[in-house]
User: Which sequence fits this backbone?
């Protein structure tokens, strides 16, 4: 991977940060994006110190329709032509299908479907022209086994997964692959917030809610961000050149569907 450039969404924390760390350690020039400059700058500095790699922060709101072109151009200036694009968006508001307001659906649509497609639309022709590219979309196991209360995430990430499948076929003969990684329960700041809120509603301690959640996982625990990032790093590598249009599940065996 030496000398390649990667653009990683949500790189200040969680799965995005773990992915940026692995790619930087493998020799990529990495640009991490997110909405908060201070957290991005701190994460970039820490990742660079840990790995000895080149890591640059770039403020970008994936849901902003006017921001994609400028962010893509800025990433090229910071790291050179992007070879690996990791599309990783934050979670939309929870809620049942009929409980979410129109505005919430529209905002989630921009964040989870149109936002990734805007960047993919800029990346894929450039990658195809260069004869190499990796686009990796972070989705969720709820795409395969829908979970109640997460309607926007389930519905819209399923749409993004379908779009990724179509794109994988359109660009396969140009040395470009498009794949998805679907994490299950993963120990990230967002999951800890969700478990804390769940525990508060049930009058529990957060550790009790986490234990109950883990009891439903055959592996007996939540995954780590690094374990999900390892799947992303594999799909970004030359070793995965013949893996295309797939959804790689990383969930400790929790998903019951084949």
Assistant:
């Amino acid at each position: 991977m030496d000398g390649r450039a990667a653009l990683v969404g949500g790189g200040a924390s969680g799965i995005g940060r773990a992915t940026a760390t692995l790619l930087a350690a493998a020799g990529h020039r990495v640009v991490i994006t997110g909405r908060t400059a201070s957290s991005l700058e701190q994460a970039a500095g820490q990742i660079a110190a840990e790995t000895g790699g080149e890591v640059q922060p770039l403020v970008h709101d994936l849901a902003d329709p006017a921001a994609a072109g400028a962010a893509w151009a800025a990433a090229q200036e910071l790291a050179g032509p992007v070879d690996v694009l990791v599309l990783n968006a934050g979670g939309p508001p929870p809620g049942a299908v009929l409980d979410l307001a129109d505005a919430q659906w529209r905002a989630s649509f921009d964040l989870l479907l149109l936002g990734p497609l805007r960047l993919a639309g800029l990346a894929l022709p450039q990658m195809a022209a260069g004869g190499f590219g990796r686009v990796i979309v972070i989705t969720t196991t709820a795409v395969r086994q829908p979970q109640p209360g997460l309607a926007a995430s389930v519905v819209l990430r399923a749409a993004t997964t379908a779009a990724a499948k179509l794109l994988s076929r359109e660009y396969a003969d140009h040395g470009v692959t498009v794949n998805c990684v679907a994490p299950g329960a993963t120990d990230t700041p967002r999951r800890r917030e969700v478990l804390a809120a769940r525990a508060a509603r049930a009058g529990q301690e957060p550790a009790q809610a986490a234990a109950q959640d883990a009891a439903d996982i055959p592996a007996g625990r939540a995954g780590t961000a690094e374990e999900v990032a390892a799947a992303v790093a594999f799909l970004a590598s030359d070793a995965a050149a013949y893996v295309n249009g797939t959804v790689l599940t990383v969930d400790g065996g929790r998903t019951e569907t084949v």
Observations:
- The CA atoms of residues 125 and 171 lie 8 Å apart.
- The longest strand covers residues 176-183.
- The chain is about 50% helix and 15% strand.
- The chain has a mean pLDDT of 94.
